[in-house]
């Protein structure tokens, strides 16, 4: 009874908080916040020290600081685009504030003589030091004291500012202090950990004291963060283990391949398979002959030949008289897979079908009819494969490419599409993010794991160099030379997590600047806010050679092969994790020409950033890089949400927190044996009540 009452208290809707109406609640839902407790578990991505005011005369470019000053001049200018400039002074120096998005009221509020307090990143501009879109507020009367605690920076969505979110979380923290929050971990799990209580941990991570060590917090190594990381890792591990237990009891069609189609497929390939490919295929074949569904992950480096292995598995399913389906994350990638697979299977008399969301109605209708009738034996598509309107005839194998772009939920939906006569399809999942075996049992607790650890002969390694952004002109000249030789290049702009607006602005401004610097080079642009059709048009134009230089955000991390692209420039590379850098670098070096990757960074580099850039520069082996990332234990991208396919990870990092994994595994066994009733509320807290993948309810 008490547990039910506590659950009800924790599950109060966020609209119970002051100032939260239906519109704001809808925006908060985009962040996974539907209940008051969800605000407590919306954890900061980083912290800023706003506890002291820096004189304007002491500012240096590249730092983030709190400043105060009096407005000297405010004006609207039209240099390349409309913008608002405001000049402030405190007697020790001057600073320009630059706004690309502003209102008339904002302009009027920055009149001469107004005192303001700002926070933002200081950078060099045409008029000296400046801040672009700083947070600011006007000051009235007595001097206001700076913040008493470090300022958390949260992941946000459109329509919700950091300031608004902090006010709401403050309300939730007051309720936490008044009523507490239920700790679902039993004492026998918590006792050996010597970590703070859940309430203490939450209070600390949201409002660290001003004397807290920023470096420790930035590395995610404070005991409060570790307490939350442990609970989060345990929750994900439990839900995946429960999923695996369920899948192991599901029936499936054994795929015997009496026609030997898989052998004929392999014999018809224009190249020999590597020994690693053959080993992994043997593991898959053993699974497919059983009457329980295979759920296997194939991981391997970029270019290791995962698609060929998947195609051979598909051939076995088709040779057994059933269908196979391959799902890719983008239409471009789906079309690329379709072209390759169709050319391989046509000589064998197998019909391959493409299904995407943007197909003309008549084409799509015809494709769906072919799939439903069973004539189409191999179906290639995007997420359209599990949407309404598509019916498979006898789907026995689902293949998911680039696992980190989908997640568990989506591949389950595809699996359910193939459920016929109470038989479940086998699942083959592929990822190009190599993961050290020591971590795979946690990241993929619901999967068997196979590794292709050998590259086909003849691939030329990509030469990688790191250079400070002061050498930007040299890099631009290098792009000009490459394009003059008939080659193509990528320029990747950084992502700034808490400011989508600035991401796209950075990409647009970079593209404009490069087009100006390279007037004889055809420059294109791709970023996440573009409509999907526009993105695909740009990528197709790049593939066709109509665009020579493609400026992009990290949306190109998973993309089509462009063998003619031989140069990759990654700006602000020090901000990215090793796996992401490696994935981006893998966009070049796909043809026979020598390829290079330039990592532009902003000096000075921290120790961890320098170690990361050295690691990516010194090796092209994804498994070596993955191991190095594990050793560095930085908060990088090696095993972030996208790469594992786990639901959103708020505080835990598998690489950084790997030393907790033995205790996580022990605690999971104890919870499954003695406290199964506590798993559902943990899953609701960390994963979300609407996530079905753990099926713990």
Give an overview in words.
It is a single chain. The chain is α/β, with parallel strands linked by helices. It folds into 4 domains: about 1-45 and about 155-245 and about 655-685, no CATH class; about 50-145, OB fold (Dihydrolipoamide Acetyltransferase, E2P) (Beta Barrel), CATH 2.40.50; about 260-450, Rossmann fold (3-Layer(aba) Sandwich), CATH 3.40.50; about 465-620, Rossmann fold (3-Layer(aba) Sandwich), CATH 3.40.50.300. About 40% of the residues lie in helices and about 15% in strands. It has 25 helices and 21 strands. The strands form 4 sheets. Strands 11-12-10-13-14-9-15 form a 7-stranded parallel β-sheet, sandwiched between helices. It has a 6-stranded parallel β-sheet with strand order 16-21-20-17-19-18, sandwiched between helices. Helix 5 (about 160-180) runs antiparallel to helix 7 (about 200-205). The longest helix is centred in the middle third of the chain and has 25 residues, at about 225-245. The two termini are about 20 Å apart. The relative contact order is 0.10. Residues about 495-500, about 635-645 and about 690-695 have low confidence and may be disordered.
Count of structural domains? 4
Question: Ends: how far apart?
Answer: 18 Å
Oligomeric state of the chains present here: single chain
CATH fold assignment of the largest domain: Rossmann fold
Helix content: 25-40%
Percent of sequence in beta strands: 15-25%
Helix count equals 25
- What form results from the Cα inertia axes? globular
Stretches where pLDDT is under 50 for at least 5 consecutive residues are 496-501, 634-647, 689-697
Structural class: alpha/beta
Largest sheet: 7 strands, parallel
Give the rounded overall mean pLDDT: 85
Q: For the record, what CATH class of the largest domain applies?
A: Alpha Beta
CATH architecture assignment of the largest domain: 3-Layer(aba) Sandwich
CATH superfamily of the largest domain: P-loop containing nucleotide triphosphate hydrolases
């Amino acid at each position: 009874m008490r547990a039910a009452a506590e659950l009800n208290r924790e599950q109060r809707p966020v609209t119970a908080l002051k100032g939260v109406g239906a519109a704001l609640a809808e925006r908060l839902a985009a962040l996974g916040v539907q209940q008051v407790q969800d605000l407590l578990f919306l954890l900061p991505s980083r912290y800023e020290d706003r506890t002291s005011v820096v004189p304007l005369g002491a500012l240096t470019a590249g730092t983030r600081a709190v400043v105060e000053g009096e407005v000297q001049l405010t004006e609207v200018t039209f240099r390349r685009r409309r913008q608002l400039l405001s000049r402030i002074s405190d007697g020790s120096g001057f600073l320009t504030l630059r706004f690309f998005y502003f209102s008339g009221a904002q302009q009027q509020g920055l009149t001469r003589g107004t005192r303001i307090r700002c926070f933002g990143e200081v950078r060099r501009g045409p008029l000296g030091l400046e801040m672009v879109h700083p947070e600011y507020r006007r000051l009235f009367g007595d001097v206001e004291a700076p913040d008493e605690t470090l300022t958390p920076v949260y992941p946000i969505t459109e329509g919700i500012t950091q300031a608004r979110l902090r006010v709401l979380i403050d309300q939730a923290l007051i309720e936490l202090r008044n009523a507490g929050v239920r700790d679902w971990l039993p004492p026998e799990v918590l006792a050996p950990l010597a970590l703070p209580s859940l309430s203490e941990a939450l209070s600390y991570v949201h409002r660290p004291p001003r004397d807290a060590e920023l470096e420790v917090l930035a590395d995610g190594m404070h005991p409060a963060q570790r307490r939350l990381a442990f609970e989060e890792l345990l929750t994900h591990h439990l839900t995946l283990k429960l999923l695996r237990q369920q899948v192991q009891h599901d029936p499936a069609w054994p795929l015997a391949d009496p026609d030997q189609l898989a052998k004929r497929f392999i014999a018809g390939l224009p190249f020999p398979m590597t020994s690693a490919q053959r080993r992994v295929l043997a593991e898959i074949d053993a699974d497919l002959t059983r009457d329980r569904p295979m759920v296997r992950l194939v991981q391997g480096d970029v270019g290791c030949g995962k698609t060929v292995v998947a195609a051979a598995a598909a051939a076995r399913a088709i040779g057994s008289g059933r269908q196979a389906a391959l799902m890719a994350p983008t239409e471009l990638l789906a079309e690329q897979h379709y072209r390759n697979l169709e050319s391989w299977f046509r000589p064998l008399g197998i019909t391959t079908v493409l299904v995407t969301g943007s197909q003309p109605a008549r084409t799509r209708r015809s494709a769906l009819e072919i799939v439903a009738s069973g004539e189409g034996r191999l179906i290639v598509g995007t997420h359209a494969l599990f949407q309404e309107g598509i019916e498979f005839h006898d789907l026995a194998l689902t293949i998911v490419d680039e696992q980190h772009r989908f997640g568990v939920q989506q591949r389950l939906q595809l699996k359910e599409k193939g459920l016929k006569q109470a038989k479940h399809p086998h699942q083959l999942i592929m990822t190009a993010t190599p993961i050290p075996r020591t971590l795979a049992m946690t990241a993929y607790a619901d999967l068997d794991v196979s590794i292709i650890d050998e590259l086909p002969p003849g691939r030329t390694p990509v030469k990688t160099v790191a250079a400070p952004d002061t050498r930007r002109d040299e890099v631009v000249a290098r792009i000009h030379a490459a394009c003059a030789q008939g080659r193509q290049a990528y320029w990747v702009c950084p992502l700034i997590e808490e400011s989508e607006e600035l991401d796209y602005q950075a990409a647009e401004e970079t593209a404009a600047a490069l087009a100006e610097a390279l007037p004889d080079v055809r420059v294109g642009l791709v970023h996440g806010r573009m409509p999907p059709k526009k993105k695909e048009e740009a990528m197709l134009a790049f593939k066709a050679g109509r665009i020579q230089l493609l400026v992009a955000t990290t949306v190109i991390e998973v993309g089509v092969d462009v063998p003619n692209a031989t140069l990759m420039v990654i700006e602000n590379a020090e901000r990215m994790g090793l796996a992401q850098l490696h994935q981006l670098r893998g966009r070049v070096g796909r043809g026979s020409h020598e390829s290079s990757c330039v990592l532009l960074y902003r000096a000075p580099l921290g120790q961890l950033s320098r170690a990361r850039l050295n690691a990516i520069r010194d090796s092209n082996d994804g498994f070596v890089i993955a191991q190095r990332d594990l050793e560095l234990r930085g908060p990088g991208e090696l095993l972030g949400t996208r790469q594992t396919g786990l639901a959103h990870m708020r505080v835990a990092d598998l690489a950084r927190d790997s030393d907790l994994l033995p205790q996580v595994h022990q605690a999971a066994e104890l919870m499954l044996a003695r406290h199964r009733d506590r798993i559902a509320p943990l899953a609701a807290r960390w994963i979300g009540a609407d996530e079905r993948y753990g099926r713990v309810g």
